[in-house]
Each structure stands twice: as C-alpha cells, then as structure tokens.
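Fold this complex.
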Amino acid sequence: MIDVLYFAWVRERIGLPRERLDTAARTVRDLIAELTAREDRYALAFADLTSLRVALDQELSNFDAPLQGIREVAFFPPMTGG
Amino acid sequence: MIDVLYFAWVRERIGLPRERLDTAARTVRDLIAELTAREDRYALAFADLTSLRVALDQELSNFDAPLQGIREVAFFPPMTGG
Amino acid sequence: MRVSVQTAVFDLGTESNAFAASVPTAGAIVTFTGVVRDNAGTLSAMEIEHYPGMTEKAIAAMIEQAITRWTLTDALVIHRYGRLAAGEPIMMVATAAPHRGDAFAAAEFLMDYLKSRAPFWKKEIGADGAAWVAALSSDEAALTRW
Amino acid sequence: MRVSVQTAVFDLGTESNAFAASVPTAGAIVTFTGVVRDNAGTLSAMEIEHYPGMTEKAIAAMIEQAITRWTLTDALVIHRYGRLAAGEPIMMVATAAPHRGDAFAAAEFLMDYLKSRAPFWKKEIGADGAAWVAALSSDEAALTRW
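Structure:
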C-alpha cells in the first residue's frame, strides 16, 4: 500500500488530494502508467510529464526512481514559492 | 579665500576641524605643499597621500584637480561608512 | 534557525526586531519580504497551497545548506499559505552574519531555493477567475549560480 | 527616496514597516541593517564622524544611480553618527522593487557604495583607548563589480 498525494492543478484535475493505492508498480513511471490507464482524469493530469514533479517520502525525486520501500508519493507542478 | 575642512585622524593630527585660508595654490597638491611647509602637524597629516582623500565643494576629487572656483576643500582618510 | 509555515499574517517589523534581538553579535542583518502584488488592480486574492511535512523539511534543509556555505549567525524563514489579500506579506527570509557579504548571499540563496524547491503553489484569484501561477524559467535558472 | 543622517537610534521594525507601507505596489522588499559589533567584548562604544552636507548629497546620488540601474519602487538610507553603543544599529538600507533580483542588487550596491564612498569615519572606543577603523581593501574592491 502506498499513499499518493496530488497538489495544485494535479489535485484539481484528478479531483482528490490523496488516495491510498495497492500497486505493484516498481518505479514512479510504472505507477503513472497504471494511473493513466485507469481513468481520463489521470491521463489528463499526467499527459505532460515535463510539467510535473514527483517527491518520494517528501524528497524531490525523478520518474525513474524505484518505489520499493516508499510510503508516500506526491505529484505536483513545478513549485512557485517565495 | 577658501574653507579647508579636516575629518577623522586628519582633523586630530592637524588639531582643528576647519580653517579659512588665503591661498594662491592652483591645485590641491599645491595647497598640500603650502600647508606641509607651514607646521609639523600639517606635514604629519599629509605625509602619506595614498592614505588621504580629498573632496572639492563636497564632491570626491583628486590631488591634481584645480582649485579655481572652489570654495570648500576637505581632507580625510578613506571612508568607513555602512 | 526558525522555520514557520503558517496561515496567519505576520508583521515585518515585529519579526525583524525579534530576529535582530536574537543575534546580538551579528554585524549584518538582511531581510527579504515578498508581498502579494496587484499590478493590474484585478487581483482579489492569492491562494497558496503547500505540502505539509515536506515544506518544513525542505526549508530546514535549505537553511542547513546556507549555514554550511556561508558564515551565518542565524537564519529565519516565514512562509504563509492559505488565502492572502493583495498587499499582505507572503513570506520573509532573514539572515544574520558577521559580514554583509555572507548575509546577502545567504538571503539570495534561500530566496532562489524557496522559489523553485519549496513545495508551495500560488494561485491568483481575480475578478474573472483563478489561475495557477506558472513557474518561471528564470527562477529555475537562478539556481545554477549557487 | 528618503535619506536620514541622524544621531538618534532608530528602530529596525518601525522603519521596515513604514518603508513597506510606503511601497504598496512593490512585490519585493530588502533591508540591510548594520549593527555595532563587539566581537572581543572589549568595545565600549563606536564614534562616527561625518561630513555634514556632503554626506546627504553623496547618499542621494548613490540612490539616484541605483534607481537608474535597476527597476526600483523606492529606496531608503538611514545612517547614524555620533556615539553608538555596542548592539545598537549603525545604519540601514531598504529597497523595494517589483522583482527580488532588483531589490537585492540595489541594496548590495548601496551598501558597497556607503562603505567606501559616503563620508563617514568610524572610531572604535575600547577599554584601552580609541582607534580609527581602517578602510578594507575588500570594501574598495567590492565596488568594481558594479
């Protein structure tokens, strides 16, 4: 089981801030493929990976990172703090 | 007639903050030579020109600048503001 | 080091004085304050979302990095989230150091990292709708100088 | 633009808030504050001398130059003279701009110029005598970057 969090327009497109998933995905990219296949709203949110960022257990990571041992995955657009 | 002002250790060495002089000096360097010839305390203050700065009518200038038309000459060490 | 991620408005003066009082041996104090701007007069509010947990950790890591790179006496980051009105402060950074160069560099470094590496997302809410603020490539590029 | 050359102590918080309130359309505000440091615990006071008339003109010219070089909303310089106790603020610079890069650059520029081009001279008064602060070649060198 893995917690998947969505922020900003990713959250808006998918329509929820977080969900708990049972997944066999080995990498972030696998997880995205799995979600994209599920429903259009996911496909829409993940259409352009260059406009997305991912954090694994609250650390910035990349789409090829393995998910083994990870409890929390977060997807969001490039950050606009400050 | 010209007003000559001294600041910081230049003022301390010469022993006064300002004086009014009747001088025929054509440049700052001429004025310094004239003062240096006057008394030891001036010679001491003007001994090392690399450690001195000059302002003419409240604008930073240089030792070769002409004094014509100038009403106020100020001598001081490099500034340490901020 | 103090990191505060908060909804409440803060007072620049009060925070500046408290920070300065906490670093009596520092010769140089720099503050940066970001304010909700309403250039066109059409902004009714700014909504800021963040990633609780990650935000605090990411900012603390940025400050640790700044302390490693420069001779700093201390540093402070306050960043708000939630709904902010035009003219309100969004965030502030304060740095204290023995020398001005370190205080300035660390404050700019923290700002550049906060802009692109702290998990905040801004949404501008105007009379005719709301729009997420797009990340600037110039902000991303600013990171390469550190 | 405000230039204040004064003997009175000033309050960083009060000045920061007043400056921020005066620039409601600026998105970025930077302040720098210099404080009398007592590293060795031996400083009893700092005495600052200045050149009345030239000081104000020189600082105003620096601010004019900053306004020409960067997109600034406004800038403020407060600089004290006379006798200052350890821990007291010596001076502050504040800049406001639409963008942070301009606010930071202008504040650093003003600091570098104030250090070496504004007619102030500092004297440190300790338990065993007084000594004029020597100008640093690093401060003179800092000017070459602008």
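The interface with chain A takes residues 34, 49-51, 53-54, 57-58, 79, 90-91, 111, 114-123, 132-135, 139-140 of chain C (CB under 8 Å).
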